[in-house]
Amino acid sequence: MTFKDQFRFVKQNMKKNKSRLFMTILATSIGCAFLIVLASVGFGLHKSIIQDMMENQLVTQVEIYNKQDSDGVYKGLDDEDVAYLEKIDAVKAVTRRQALQQMPLFKTDDYSLSAESIVAHFPSELKADFQLSKGKLPEKENEIIVGYHFSKHLMKETKGEDNPYNDDGSVKKEYAYEGDLLGKTIDMEVLKIDKGEETTETLPLTIVGIAKQPSREWMIDTNVFISESVLDKVESFTGVRGGAQEMYDGGEVTKNGNKTYDYVRVYGNNVQDITAISEKLEDSNYQIYSVVSEMKQINAVFLIMKIGLIFIGTIALIIASIGIYNTMTMAVTERAPDIGIMKAIGANPKTIKNIFLLESSYIGLLGAAFGTIVAYGISYLVNLALPMIVNSVFEEAPPEGLMLSYIPWSLTVISVVICLAVTIFSGLRPAKRATKVDVLKAMRREV
Fold first, then answer.
1. Which CA distances in Å does 45 have to 38, 213, 254, 303, 373?
2. What is the reported pTM?
3. Which stretches are transmembrane (predicted)?
4. Fewer CB within 10 Å of terminal CB in the chain, N or C?
């Protein structure tokens, strides 16, 4: 008996009790859809988090904090380390920054703002895709670049208990600066505290450029990029390394001191480059952090989560398999005369077994097909309704790009395979029972 004949025989017999067949396929479809939709939550959240990280420039960046020497002592990073880092294969750029160790007050007219001041190496910053929204790079020692949000946070001094901020954190219109800062002179006021006595020094600076808006809406950039000579002037005034307000142990400024950097970042072209660079840096005893290493941990956590969700979803299919088992058992009983005739004309028991396994597989395949279609529909509706639900319940928009449910082809394949395996296993015992039917009893319908 060929496979085609077996399949035709199965279809003919399945048509004899359509209502029972429909309910069995329905139960299997529900179980398969539940499995896919449940697991799709893990896949969706995983995809949303990874996609958010991949869209950020940080994914191609490695932060280096310090280096451990042969004696186990951690030391800061200097020009020698930068030179070594730039020679590593696949390194696109090595940025290094020194931070002024106080928050100076920047004043222009009646407006002021305390902001972090940074000395940056702009040739490497440009290689790392540093961009300006307007203006140019500094060419003179008194020229500076300000962050994109600097002007938006520059405000008039308040009197008494006046609150200059709106509920969303922005500066009220009557206090906000509305002019163009480009080309404007602004005074940087630094503070020195010596034996409890405070003195200030004012350095006039010219704004020649404004940094590009950060890639994330929630990021606020009010940094001020100053020259190294400005930092030297502040250090000369305070007498403390980094321009800190007060002296601390080891803070004395020395003429021949080895300059170290507060922030050193290595950039590659893609994730693969960052993986190789990170391994090289760790082998060289650098203390680093990269989003790629965090992604590995996230992937491991979500892998466990996905396996758990698939396992829970499989339970629904196992429950549905009880219906398949009952259906196949009843099919064996109802078709006892047919089985008897087949055995009487010399049919191989293996062929009889295959016929019933084929029928249970067919039920599983139909259930998996309909369940997959339903799961895709539910997934689409969930993602469509999620923003509306979040807006109505929490009165705020969900994170951009959030995908609660995502069904990759791999999940579909896994679910179909599990569904077929469960249904075949459910029909295995009834199929074995069919091979043991006694011919004479079957002909008398006594099975």
1. 12, 27, 53, 12, 21
2. 0.66
3. 21-45, 300-325, 362-386, 406-428
4. N
